[in-house]
Amino acid sequence: QILIKKQLKLFGIEPTVCDNGQMVIDELLLNRYDVILMDCHMPVLDGYGASKLMREMEKEGKLSSPPVHIVALTADALPHTRDGCLAAGMDDYITKPLRKNVLRETLEKWFHL
Fold it and tell me: What is the pTM of this model?
């Protein structure tokens, strides 16, 4: 989290950090976000479950529109992991260790820096 926060601050972004997927859901009920960098492996509710729940809530009109973009962050670079992220409702996928240029390029796809 510390490294990602530093990199985001270099792009002029002040991130909101959640320690688990349930906190992400709770935060989305209170605030609107353009992009979520979703860790796939978190306690309480992992990134896969949180993403599925977010997409269900969007369909039910419980979250503001347009839909938030979800970018998976994971140390697992295997092809089936990427497929699982997309199947869970995530829009994109980047692997750790995170390179600044990859983060920037990915964010620029979903968010105007």
Answer: 0.91
